[in-house]
Write a structure and sequence with these properties.
alpha/beta; Alpha-Beta Plaits; 11% strand; disordered N terminus
Length: 429
Amino acid sequence: MSEERKEKKEFFHAVELDREKCVGCTKCVRVCPTEAIRVRNGKAKIDSSRCIDCSQCVKVCPVNALYIKSDPLSDIFKFKYRLAVISASYESQFSEEIGYERALKALLHLGFDEIAEQAMITDVTADIIRDYIRNHPQIRPVLSSNCPAIVRLVQVRFPSLVKNLLHIESPMSMLAKYYRDKISKEKGLKEDEIGIFLIVPSSSQITAVHQPEGTYKHLHDGAIAISDIYSQVMDIQKKLCDDDTQISSYANGLSWAISGMEAEEVAADDIETLAVSGIHNVIDILSNIESHRLDQYDYIELKNCQLGCVGGELNVENPFVAASRIKKIVKKTRRKEIDNDYFFRLYKEGYFDVEPLEPRSIMELDKDIRSALAKMKKVKEIEKKLPGLDCGVCGSPTCRALAEDIVQGQSKIDDCLVRLRRIKKNKEE
């Protein structure tokens, strides 16, 4: 491997760009929360070190040039034993006619040998988070790390807050780690004979499977989008009518798919919590945390998707309808418990610890400090010549970003059409 490649880390992304389809409209440039996209020569370009797979660009692209790539269901058959770890939002995608348990049974008919639900361990996860908060009084507020897009947003745009992130595996990763060891011992299988696949509602979770942050060992073998598996589940519904297989379900934990429920369950007499959803709302809150205006909170739940995981871009159901279904299921279902004490002991033994998370160094203009200072001066000089409208027409998200791109040789000042028009008008006058 070359020195240049060692120096520059390569990143996996579930969000991909089809340049042939791109029409250079700059809509994606304007919504990207980390300024990861530029339009040059009529085509978008994504900076992989800045992209957090929040999928805001996918939502606004008018020609579907930006899309999300997940693992195909066929990948599960590469393994002798196959476990599906499903997001709490999965069951909310299916109507009451199909029902919670039938939606789970369908996964067994599609080729999985066993199912584990995120909902199984939400109770013990709340216990773990409370214990972590109480044992880290020097960190306030502690920030949830359940949403991979938010973890990467903090690393890229709010590096001073990396220390505030909850340094514990997410619930779905906890299950993957626990079940890989459990299945290996019970079935006498090697770890690489066991395929563990997440069924997920968002692109950032696909990215987290293929390029996890902080984990000590290989946990997952793939991530399948709920939208990709939905049609296959619907196709086999007739086969399930006569299936009387008994299946365990943990409806009480499904509520964590809705923004605010995680924070509500973590809250205690000595722990004040806050819940925020939607990437731009989260950015506003993180800015306030950096300025120490929210130090009164002990724990803050942060979700990229509006309304939480029910609002994930890889779901098929309207998020409000999905949230309503979950509330009905939780209300009607008797609360079921797993061995919470065992999971909590594993946590106390460090079984779910992660390596310290690191910020991403993306904003430096030059590795040499003198050159960086000289370039910073040039950026300020160029920025004064620009209109300050942050219109994005030039292909950069802001005038400041254009100035940086010019200094780095990636753009030129004449890319600012507003400036050119003003110069032309002044000459005519």
